[in-house]
UniProtKB/TrEMBL annotation:
InterPro entries: BACK, BTB-kelch_protein, BTB/POZ_dom, Kelch-typ_b-propeller, Kelch_1, SKP1/BTB/POZ_sf. This is Kelch-like protein diablo. Pathway: Protein modification; protein ubiquitination. One of its GO terms (molecular function) is actin binding. PROSITE patterns: BTB. Keywords: Actin-binding, Kelch repeat, Repeat, Ubl conjugation pathway. The lineage of its organism: Eukaryota, Metazoa, Ecdysozoa, Arthropoda, Hexapoda. The keyword Ligase does not apply. One of its GO terms (biological process) is protein ubiquitination. Coiled coil: none annotated. It holds the Pfam family Kelch_KLHDC2_KLHL20_DRC7. Residues 34-102 form the BTB domain.
Length: 525
């Protein structure tokens, strides 16, 4: 006897999907049923919102009812792209196929990364792996590092390592950004200390005015002076001398020598409280030593960051009055001075990127704000930027992949709730976008970037990892009591009311470096 199950009819057409997408592509070509226009420069591309949303989480978020673009018939795309690349992206969205010149591959991959289309990146990576050689390995390595292609990164890095000494004499090195330079140095510094030293010095000499401040940090991270050859270093009892006047004539270079041979090193992490009359501490993570270096400004609820050799303080109140200026503490001169940065808000979120301080949100008279501005350290100028969508104060702010990310915080205007929306600002686009949600349960948040990984922590709750590509968080470690985080020398550090800890990258657990009783500590580097 037949069962009911055996009487069911199952129809499956293996070619249905290809015919379906072919029809959609023909509809786009004929501008039939299209409901959105994408503007790239002077060129317009018509498309279907449903197809774009299905192919790209970026467009799926853009066309959500919560954002203004959902009501627009035309969207101007301001990210880095061109007509050939955008045409190829759309071809892939509609057919799963694309053809483009190899010279456009880097920009194409950055576009797929921008549109959060991770699947196609894997196929492009497989094709690029076949093209790696000694001539293009540096370019492909930097591209792989920028947009997280581990397979391509490994293969290109192997070529770079085999040709590391040749790069020392290449003018291409001198035109790299600091991030790109460090990608190269991370590969060859152990096996090629002399070449690493020469690359750093050559890169700094090429633009000494703007790069001089990097000399100490780069040499400290990538060159151990005692590993240099006799061509560069001469031992003279009881001291060592580097045969390079360039080092001797730069304070950062001299400090590197002192640290290398005499174990003398400045502290690099700084701990403070946003309450008045609390001291500022410096902490040396290698020696696990803590020292009081200054008294804080007589302010409550201010925000602070470190830039070069100074701690910058903005916002806050003194005797219930907002300050008209910011202030900075020169670590070397041990002196507080005023700066022209009139924020006039409490508990803003801050981060430093591209020689600028980005200032997000804050509150005045129990009202939270969505304002954003940037302060140019070198020009001593403040610039107003587009507002974030959600008002918040005490958010965590960090810089990742050329964009500003804002996490958590608190909003008085939305029924006094904690903010769960992550927002992203790309200066190239000049606007904010939704970048995911988090389980935020506290009024304040801090975040930090370590090895291209974003960590965030509620003031009084757990430490979590956030993946900006899939827009999801993952618990790292539970905490109770007030605590904040920062990154330094590719490590994550946490300060809470019990002391200072460092995140162990092997087991994702925090190890206590120094025990002390801090009062609502904030840590910066």
């Amino acid at each position: 006897m037949s069962t009911k199950e055996s009487r069911k009819l199952v129809v499956e057409d293996p070619n249905y999907s290809s015919r379906y997408f072919k029809a959609l592509a023909e509809f786009r070509e004929a501008k039939r049923f299209t409901d959105i226009t994408l503007q790239v420069g002077d060129t317009e591309f018509v498309a279907h919102r449903a197809v774009l949303s299905a192919a790209s989480p970026f467009f799926n978020a853009m066309f959500d009812d919560a954002f203004a673009e959902s009501q627009k018939e035309k969207v101007n795309l301001l990210h880095e792209t061109n007509v050939a690349v955008m045409s190829a992206v759309l071809d892939y969205m509609y057919s799963g196929k694309l053809t483009i010149a190899i010279k456009e591959a880097a920009l194409l991959l950055r576009n797929f990364d921008y549109f959060q289309m991770d699947g196609v990146k894997e196929e492009c990576e497989k094709a690029l792996l076949k093209t790696v050689n000694a001539e293009n390995c540096l370019e492909l390595l930097l591209m792989a590092d920028e947009i997280s292609l581990p397979g391509l990164h490994e293969t290109a890095a192997d070529f770079v390592l085999r040709n590391f000494k040749e790069f020392c004499n290449s003018d291409e090195i001198n035109h790299l950004t600091i991030r790109q330079l460090e990608t190269i140095l991370n590969i060859g510094n152990v096996r090629h200390p002399d070449t690493t030293y020469k690359i750093i010095i050559s890169w700094i000499r090429f633009d000494e005015t703007n790069r001089n401040s990097y000399i100490h940090n780069l040499l400290s991270k990538y060159v151990k002076a005692t590993n240099l050859s006799e061509d560069l270093i001469v031992q003279k009892v009881p001291k060592y001398i580097i045969n390079d006047d360039f080092i001797a004539n730069h304070e950062g270079g001299v400090q590197w020598l002192l640290e290398s041979f005499f174990n003398l090193k400045h502290s690099n992490l700084y701990i403070f409280s946003t309450k008045t009359e609390c001291p500022v501490y410096s902490f040396n993570p290698k020696a696990a030593s803590l020292h009081q270096i200054a008294k804080q400004p007589l302010l409550d609820n201010f925000s602070a960051v470190k830039y070069k050799d100074s701690i910058y303080v903005v916002g806050g109140q003194a005797n219930d009055e907002f300050t008209d200026d910011g202030t900075k503490y020169d670590i070397k001169k041990k002196l507080w001075t005023n700066i022209n940065c009139p924020i006039r808000k409490n508990q803003c979120g801050l981060c430093v990127a591209d020689d600028k301080m980005y200032i997000v949100g804050g509150w005045i008279d129990q009202i939270s704000y969505n304002t954003v501005s940037s302060f140019d350290f070198e020009r001593n100028e403040i610039l107003t930027l587009p507002n974030i969508e959600f008002e918040r104060y005490s958010p965590g702010v960090t810089y990742y992949n050329s964009s500003i990310y804002v996490f958590g915080g608190h909003s008085v205007l939305t029924d006094d709730v904690c903010m769960s929306f992550v927002e992203r600002y790309d200066p190239r686009e000049g606007k904010w976008a939704h970048a995911g949600t988090i389980d935020n349960f506290d009024i304040g948040c801090t975040c930090a970037l370590v090895s291209n990984s974003i960590y965030w922590k509620d003031w009084n709750a757990s430490l979590q990892y956030f993946d900006p590509r899939c827009q999801l968080s993952e618990l790292v470690q539970e905490f109770t009591g007030f605590g904040t985080i920062t990154s330094f020398e590719n490590s994550l550090y946490l300060a809470n009311e019990e002391g200072i800890s460092q995140l162990n990258s092997d087991d994702e657990q925090c190890t206590v470096l120094f025990m002390s009783s801090f009062k609502s500590p904030f840590i910066i580097a």
